[in-house]
Amino acid sequence: MQIDAPRHDEDHDLKEEDTLDIKNIISKVFEYWYLFLISLAFCLFCAVGYIKYGTPKYKITSKITIDDNSNSPSSKLSSVSSMMDLSDLLSLPSNAYNEIDNLTSRNLMRQVAKALNLNVIVYKKGLIKRTELFNEEPFTINISPKIDSLEERSYDVDIKGDVIHLHSFKEDLDTSFKYGTVVHLQQYDVVFNVKPNKKPEPNGYKLVIKSLDKEVEDLSKDFDVSLTDKQSTTLALQLAYSNSKKGEAILQTLMTFYQRSNLETKIQIADSTLKFIDSRLGIVSRELSGIETEFQEFKQENNVADVVEQGKALVDNVKEYYNKLNEQQVQISVLDDISKYITNPTNRKIIPSSLSVQDPVFGLAIGKYNELLSQRDKLTLAYKDDNPIVKNVDDEIENVRQSLIKSFDVYRKSLKISLDAIKDKNVSLNNEVKSVPRKQRVYLDYSRKQNLQEQLYLYLLQKKEETAISKTSTISAARIVDPAKSDYNPFKPNMPVIVLMGLFVGLLIPSLFLYIKEVLNIRVITKQDVEKLTSIPIVGEIGSNTGANSIVFTANSRSIISEQFRSLRTNLQFLLSGGKSQVILITSSMSGEGKSFISANLGGILSISGKKTVIIELDLRKPKLSHSLGLDNSFGFTNFAVSQSDNIEDIIKPTVFDENYFVISSGPVPPNPSELLLGKKLELLVLELRKTFDFIIIDSPPVGLVSDALQIEKLVDLTLYVVRQEYTLKTQLNIINDLKANGKIRRPYLLVNDIKAKKAGYYGYGYGYGYGYGYGYGYGYAERTEKKSRFSFLKR
Question: What stretch(es) of the chain map to CATH 3.40.50.300?
Answer without folding.
Answer: 537-757
